[in-house]
Amino acid sequence: MQLAISxxxxxxxxxxxxxxxQTFLVGVWAERVAFHPSQPVLAAxxxxxxxxxxxxxxxAETCRFAAHLKGANSLAFQPGGELLxxxxxxxxxxxxxxxxxxxxxxxxxxxxxxxxxSYTASDLLFSPDGRQFALVDVRDIRLRESATRKLIATLxxxxxxxxxxxxxxxxxxxxxxxxxxxxxxxxxxxxxPVSTSLHAEAASARAYLWRADFSPxxxxxxxx
Length: 224
Description:
By secondary structure, the chain is mainly β. A hairpin with a 5-residue loop joins strand 6 and strand 7. The protein contains one helix and 21 strands.
């Protein structure tokens, strides 16, 4: 298992089990990094708006292309698929067909474009089965089908969202906010998902929760 850490203009890659640094990539101011779920590929959403891919076996950069005019904010691989979702500091979020990049090429094509209500989108993620994705639109979350982009539901909120996390069974969706607050959505509730607000203990009432993630078993949720 590997761990990737973006720090300034470097990305450090560690052997998770041995806690040993394996390699590092320089000159990359990455807002987010992500491992492909089944192939030795690391992707980065870069501050200059580009998306970059590396082969982790050779350490070589295999693909780079411009995705967002004013900087890329986040990226997410579709589990078991060949789609990559990205958001940035522009009004359009994208789905990309990255089959070429996974094969070592760089003939990436756009598979979908989604226009939001604001000129920035903080996050996008896929469900564990890859059939749906969630896209932040300022305070709200749009749930869509991955294949058709059809809108499934809109989750309405009252605070800006910085990050999304989904449990391994696909039932629980978490969104982070300021004021040390998270919103936890039960996607299994029908016909409309329902939410619960969680308030973390913090030294300041204005503390921002920038990131969240579930444990592999799905019984714990961490936020920072």
